[in-house]
Design brief:
OB fold (Dihydrolipoamide Acetyltransferase, E2P), alpha+beta, two-stranded antiparallel sheet, about 150 residues
Amino acid sequence: MRCLSLAAAAVLSSTGANAQTVVDGDTIDYRGVVVHLWGIDAPEKGQVCADNWKAGEAAIDRLKELMNGRKVVCNLRGGDDAPRVAALCTADGKDLSATMASEGLAWALTRETADYTVQETDAMSAIRGVHAHPCQKAREWRAKQLNAP
C-alpha cells in the first residue's frame, strides 16, 4: 500500500489539467486517481431509502454541482497503511466533505476523523438530506448488499 500512497501523492500534487469526475457521492476520479473524500461516507450509487428517496443519486448530483466549473484541489490524507486513497478535496477553496455532511448528503466517518461531526449534527438537527428520510447508513446498506442472496 505504501507504493500506492506515494504514487497517489505524486499525482495529487502534480500540476497540469484539473480533470476530475464523480464516481459516487464521496468518491472522485482526480487526475487519474480514484480518491475517497476525507472524513465522510455518502450514500452509495443505487442506494434508495425506505421511502423511495434516491439518496445515492442525490449525493452524486450534489457533488457534481459542487465541482462543476470550479478548480478542484485534493490533498492526500491518512497514512501509508490506509485501505484506500483518501484526500481532503476543495472546489474553489470550499471543503467538499464539509458541504456534503452539512447538507445531509453524507455521514461523518468518525473512524477516520472527527472533522465533520459538527456538520453532521447540524444536518441531523435541521433534518436535511439522509436525516429527513428513513435511510440506512451507507456502511449498513453495503453490508446488506453483500449478504443479499
